[in-house]
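Fill-in record for DUF6326 family protein.
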Amino acid sequence: MTNRPAATSPLDTSPVPVQTKLVAAWTSLMFIIVYVDIFNFYKPGVIDGIRSGLIWEFDISPTLLTVFLASMIVPAAMMLVSAALPARANRITNLVVAMLLIPYCVFNAAGTTAEWVPFYVLSIGVEVLILVFVLRTAWRWPRVVTAPAAPEASLAGASVGR
């Protein structure tokens, strides 16, 4: 049996770069959206509707599937954008896209029946919380603080007078 020394110091929480937080948030959002879509197939009548050529009330068409694909490309692209863009463009892009996606996520509850409200409240609630985290993180992006430059004349004058 080995004796381990007791931990006497608290764990260190290293600062996480803003870009890493944003990439993690967009990745989490992507997983939630995909799983909600997959779990939606378990709702009664969904697969039968797809077999008959309908998704919700819409005919399955190349246009509809292109719209669905485009909606999934957004969070996927934001993972890359959040890692690659310079800070200013990154911040603006995250703020705009997250604000636009919140109503889009809420729209997914349109037409739901009372029995499915808990499913949509939880899924949309988590999606919106992640997007609020993106907004908060991008909004509070740390600024570079630069010290004001001291005028050279005042430095030279101070040393001459002594």
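KEY FINDING: The first helix runs from residue 18 to 40.
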